[in-house]
Amino acid sequence: MTSQLPASGVPGLLTGSVPPGLYRLPVTETPEHAAALAADAGWRAARLRLDGIGDKAAFLDRCAADLGFPGWFGHNWDALADCLTDLSWWRKDGEPHGYLLVAEDWDAFHKAAPEAASVARTILTDAVEYWTGQQSPMAVLLA
């Protein structure tokens, strides 16, 4: 289950007053603004655009393209988990304060491919938990 982002919103997540997690992006917030706030706070941010994605293969392809996965990404669930728990490919110019992934059009993806969305959500949740307590935590916002 996905939690609603507390009242302090994205700024609270970026300052640590809200613990990293998998949250629903408030309807009053845009993915662009959330990513910009993250970048301003020294976090690495990426937008995963899921419009028109209707199956596992398309989801994995979009992850590879939008997130800039390394060439070794194997286009399967295990490889997705590996990429999200080894973020060496996402580090540029040193260690960021954290990692923010904004998954846009999540509800449409979930409706089109409920089984794939369920597996993807589990992998995203596991990645967030893996990075919790690390110097650079990860958070995921479903928009």
UniProtKB/TrEMBL annotation:
Q: Which SUPFAM superfamilies match?
A: Barstar-related (SSF52038)
Q: Where is the Barstar (barnase inhibitor) domain?
A: 44-142
CDD domains the UniProt entry points to: Barstar_evA4336-like
Mind telling me which InterPro entries this protein's record contains?
Barstar, Barstar-like_sf
Q: Which domain of life is it from?
A: Bacteria
Q: Describe the family membership recorded for this protein in Swiss-Prot or TrEMBL.
A: Belongs to the barstar family.
Q: What is this protein called?
A: Barstar (barnase inhibitor) domain-containing protein
Q: Which organism is it from?
A: Streptomyces thioluteus
What does the record give as the organism's lineage?
A: Bacteria, Bacillati, Actinomycetota, Actinomycetes, Kitasatosporales
